[in-house]
């Protein structure tokens, strides 16, 4: 799926921040678990003045609190036209963990 066709769903809690992020095709072809009720991002993201930018949405998720960015970046990496910084961040995490 391409960025412009992607909808992001997530949970949020005070203890965990943003978690359980799921990247799905928009409009969704199936009903998703109710646990993804804390946030959903499609129309706002797609009508942002800068366009559907993963950097804009990742920044928004950071502002809400991300305790573990790896699963979120892994979901973003599933998007066909994800910018290179997504893979670079995952690679950096791998390198840092390997030290």
Description:
Strand 1 (6-13) and strand 2 (17-25) form a beta hairpin. It contains four helices and three strands; from the N terminus they run βββαααα. By secondary structure, it is α+β, with helices and mostly antiparallel strands. A three-stranded antiparallel β-sheet has the order 2-1-3.
Task: Please give a handful of descriptors for the protein shown.
20% strand; alpha+beta; three-stranded antiparallel beta sheet; 99 residues
Topology of helices and strands:
Layout (H helix, E strand, L loop, with lengths): L5 E8 L3 E9 L13 E3 L1 H4 L7 H11 L4 H9 L6 H14 L2
Helix pairs in contact: 3-4
The proportion of strand residues reads: 15-25%
**Helix-strand category:** alpha+beta
| Main sheet properties | 3 strands, antiparallel
How many strands?
3
Number of helices: 4
The spatial strand order of the largest sheet comes to 2-1-3
Low-confidence residue ranges: none
Helix content: 25-40%
The coarse overall form would be globular
- H/E series, N to C? EEEHHHH
Distance between the termini: 34 Å
Q: Could you give a quick summary of the protein structure above?
A:
It is built from four helices and three strands. It has 99 residues and is of the alpha+beta class.
